[in-house]
Structure formats: structure tokens, C-alpha cells
Amino acid sequence: MSVSAPILPLVAAFLACAAEDPPPLPDVVVAEGVSLVTAGGESATATRAELRGERVVADVVTVTAGLDVRSRRSDWDLKAGTALFTQDVVAVRGEVTLRCERLEVVLGSAGTIKSASASGKLRLSTGGREATAERAELDVTSGTLVLTGSPRISEAGRSLSGDRIRVELDGGRAVCEGDPCRLTVDDGGLPAGGAP
Question: With DSSP H G I counted as helix, E B as strand and the rest as coil, what are the percentages for the chain, rounded to 5?
């Protein structure tokens, strides 16, 4: 089943064609095996979804167009352009995997992602790098990801931790703030007692 937003006028038109005196629209519309397609061409599918006015509440959601988000529950506000994913959230885009308990996405024009906030046992991995934190804020416009709540970035025997770590996504640069910022490097095979 494929449905374009907004769905209510389509349901009303369908009901008007199906009967001379269509019944009033229900307060809640429930659908199973739902696919939603935005005007920008992005789509989302859900095993079960409920439409309550302009809010969609769905279970087990997958968003396509390069980003795959799965969770036990999601709540979409079509008018505000937001989506909230909760309970065992896994978001995958290319080689990047994000796992957390809550992910809130704010959509920009044409269904693009404007910003996102993730929280709760956050783990972000890509290639040989891994980041952990309690919270992450993504700002697509500035191309930055800010990690807070005991953030740590680890890669190949090195780790960086502090109060706040800002990652510049395009430049691959990380800026640690707070007291203390700590860089830990494995000894890399140095002989016991220090440098040769």
C-alpha cells in the first residue's frame, strides 16, 4: 500500500467515490504494511501505522533514500516535519551505524534532514572508529556532530575523551572541550620502562 502525505484528503476522496453518503472519517486510521512517499521522493515503510490527525505513530520503521532507521516505535508529526524513534534504535547510512534509545529527526525542505538528536546508550561506529556518549547533536548545515555525556572516540589503540567533543564531519577533525580532555594511546610495543 503506497500513500502520499497528506493522507486525509486522499481517504476522503476515496470514500466520496465509494458511496453517495460517505461515513465520517474516523479519529484514528490504522494501516499495516504501509509505505509513505514524500514529494521529495524519500520513502518510509512501517509494519503498522496509525494516523491521528496529522500525526503518524508507527511500529518497526525503515526510512529509505540512503538512510535506514529501525526502532520498536516511532512517532511522526507531518505538519512539524519531525520524526521520533524510540526503543532499540538502529540507524545505518553507508558504513556508519548509530545505536541509541531515542533519535529525533527534524526534516528540512524536500524531506532532507536538517538536524538530529540522539540519546541514551549512544554508540556510533564506522570502519575502525567508534564513539560513545549519552547524547549527540547533528547539525547538517554546519556539518558538525557534538557528543556530550562522557563522550569517547576510539580508533586503533587511541581514544579521546572529555566533557564535550565536537566532530567536524567533512574535515575529520575532533575538538575536545572540558576538564580534562584526555588522549590515551597504547604503548605500541615500547619496551618496559619507556622509550629506547
Answer: 10, 60, 35
Mean pLDDT by 10 residues, the chain (196 residues): 37 38 55 58 60 59 61 90 93 85 86 87 89 91 89 92 88 84 77 54
| Alpha carbon distances (Å) from 55 to 5, 33, 40, 99, 143 | 11, 17, 19, 25, 29
Q: 103 near 123, Cβ under 8 Å?
A: no
The pTM for the full model equals 0.61
Angle formed at CA 9 by CA 8 and CA 11, multiple of 5 degrees: 65
